[in-house]
Design brief:
Helix content: 10-25%
Distance between the termini: 100 Å
Shape: elongated
Order of helices and strands: HEEEEEEHEEE
Number of strands: 9
Mean pLDDT: 89
C-alpha cells in the first residue's frame, strides 16, 4: 500500500477547492434556470391638470372713452367673454382701478346685463337671458367700491368645461339728470375684470 506524501496531500487539497466551487456554481446555475415565474404589468400612468381659461373680444380696447358728457348723456356697449377651459367653473365680474374727480362717478348710473348676441363695439342682436340677466344696476362709484374681487363679484354664469362657451355682457351708462354744477369737468374711470375659478 502506497503512502500519501505531505506534498501530494497539499496538492490534492488545492485541486479540491476550485473543483468544489465549480460544482456548486453549476448547481446554483441549474437551480436558477429551473424556477417558474410570472409577471403582470400596469402600463405607465399619467396625470394632467385641467384648465380654466377666459378670453374676450375687446382687442385690448376700452369699452367706453366718453367725453363731453352732461346730465342725461347715455351710452351702451357689449363685450363677449368666452370660456375655453376644460374644467367646470364659475365666472364673476368685478371692478378694478376705480378713480374719480369732482365725485363724477357718483352721478353715473350703470347697468350690467348678460345675454347672447352682439359683441364688442355693437349690441345689435343682443338678447338678455330669460332669467338672471340683470347683474347690477346702480352708480359707478358703488360698483367700484362694492365689487372689488372674485369673492364679492357679480355673475351667474357657470361654464361646464365640456366645450367653448360664451356670454355677452351689455354695459350701459346714464349721467344722472341731477348731477350738480360741481361735477363739471369731472372724470370717472373703472376697469372691468371677468374671472373664472374652477368649481
Amino acid at each position: 500500500m502506497s503512502r500519501v506524501t505531505p506534498r501530494a496531500a497539499k496538492l490534492a487539497a488545492w485541486i479540491a477547492i476550485p473543483a468544489a466551487l465549480i460544482a456548486s456554481g453549476i448547481v446554483v446555475s441549474t437551480a436558477s434556470y429551473s424556477a417558474f415565474s410570472a409577471t403582470t404589468v400596469n402600463p405607465t400612468n399619467n396625470w394632467t391638470a385641467g384648465t380654466v381659461a377666459l378670453t374676450d373680444d375687446d382687442a385690448n380696447s376700452a369699452m367706453f372713452t366718453a367725453t363731453g358728457l352732461k346730465p342725461g348723456s347715455t351710452g351702451s356697449n357689449c363685450i363677449t367673454v368666452t370660456s375655453t377651459g376644460s374644467l367646470a367653473s364659475a365666472v364673476k365680474l368685478y371692478g378694478t382701478a376705480a378713480a374719480t374727480t369732482n365725485a363724477f362717478s357718483s352721478y353715473i348710473n350703470i347697468s350690467v346685463v348678460q345675454g347672447t348676441g352682439g359683441g364688442f363695439g355693437s349690441c345689435t342682436g343682443f338678447t338678455p337671458l330669460a332669467s338672471g340677466s340683470s347683474l347690477y344696476t346702480g352708480t359707478l362709484l358703488n360698483f367700484g367700491n362694492t365689487y372689488t374681487n372674485y369673492s364679492n363679484g357679480v355673475g351667474t354664469w357657470t361654464p361646464t368645461g365640456t366645450a367653448s362657451e360664451s356670454r355677452v355682457y351689455q354695459i350701459s351708462y346714464t349721467v344722472s339728470s341731477t348731477a350738480p354744477n360741481s361735477a363739471q369737468a369731472g372724470t370717472a374711470a373703472l376697469g372691468l375684470t371677468w374671472e373664472a375659478q374652477n368649481s
